[in-house]
Amino acid sequence: MTGQKQALVLASFGVSDAAARAASLDAAAALLQQEFPAWQVYQAYTSNFIRKRLVAAGVQAFSLPELLTQLADAGFARVLVQPSHLTPGEEFDHKVCAAADEATALFPAGLAVGQPVFAEPADYGRVLDAVLPALGLMPGEELVLFGHGSPHRHNPVYERLQQVADDRQLPVHVGVLEPMDTPNLAMVRERLRQRGSRKLLLAPLLLSGGSHVTRDMAGSNPDSWQSQLVAAGFAVRTDMRGLGEHPAFRALYAQKVRQALAAVKW
Predict the structure, then answer these.
(1) Count: domains in the chain
(2) Where's the active site on this chain (predicted)?
């Protein structure tokens, strides 16, 4: 590796809110630069919508294909793309893996892609171990994790996370926003009813805060999860921090990079 320029790209869906972006994505990128000083860390965003908003606000934001082309032109020989995406879903397949496949020939020493946070069986326990202490459940509280889900196909990651939490006998209930995916809010409410739960902590199973958290999870509108749970008779406390705001969760990305570097034959 000596003498060859190496880039480590943190590829994310993106966040338009500056404070949420700084607390999650920028903090994760800074950690990777600290942990892997031999690599130059960059960020790319896979959401066209987010990129347009950022560019309109005067913020530099590149798609992954754009950034990979720039890195090749700048003489980088080796690139590792580490997704910040939580699950190996459509965004990961179509926006990260596809872009990497198309750009492979640009890098003579190789281009590799790391795994999402939820990629292997041990990851589910690792996420719970990272998140639960950071959230600090109060006595008698049960945790409802608010995920996004997949808009076009069922993503079994959420059900697997729920199964691991149940196997550990943890007071954790996982739900997703997307109406075509499961477990949905109605299923979460039924779980809570069967357990006789009364006090809840509602927190995002999302990398960063933003409109999904402020509006769909904890908004004052009657359709938000908080409003619906309160209307159903639960006492609800909210934690608005995205997963990326927890240092122990950000450390999972460094672990994924180490795994990728160990697995790739450059």
Answers:
(1) 2
(2) 148
Q: Residue positions in the annotated binding site for Co(2+)?
A: 148, 178, 212
Q: Read off the CATH number of the domain in which 154 is found.
A: 3.40.50.1400
One domain, residues 54 and 111: yes
* 187 within some domain: yes
Q: What is the pLDDT of residue 2?
A: 53
Count CB atoms within 10 A of the CB of residue 166: 13
Say yes or no: 55 and 154 in one domain: no
How far apart (Å, rounded) are the C-alpha atoms in residues 62 and 70?
10
Average pLDDT rounded to a whole number, residues 108-128: 97
Helix, strand, coil percent values for the chain (each to nearest 5): 45, 15, 35
Instruction: Find the domain containing 44 and state its range.
Output: 6-118+245-263
> What pLDDT, in 10s, does the model give residues 67-96?
999 999 999 999 999 999 999 888 899 999
Please give the helix or strand (H or E) that residue 27 lies within, else none: helix 27-35
Instruction: Tell me which of 16-25, 71-80, 220-229 is least confident.
Output: 16-25
185 burial via Cβ count (<10 Å: 0-12, 13-18, 19+): middle
- Place 158 in a pLDDT band, splitting at 50, 70 and 90: very high
> Which residues are identified as catalytic?
148
Examine the domain organization and report whether 79 and 131 are in the same domain. Answer: no
When pLDDT is averaged across residues 3-20 and rounded to a whole number, the result is 93
Q: Could you give the strand order of the β-sheet that contains 141-147, starting from the edge strand earlier in sequence? A: 172-176, 141-147, 199-204, 235-238
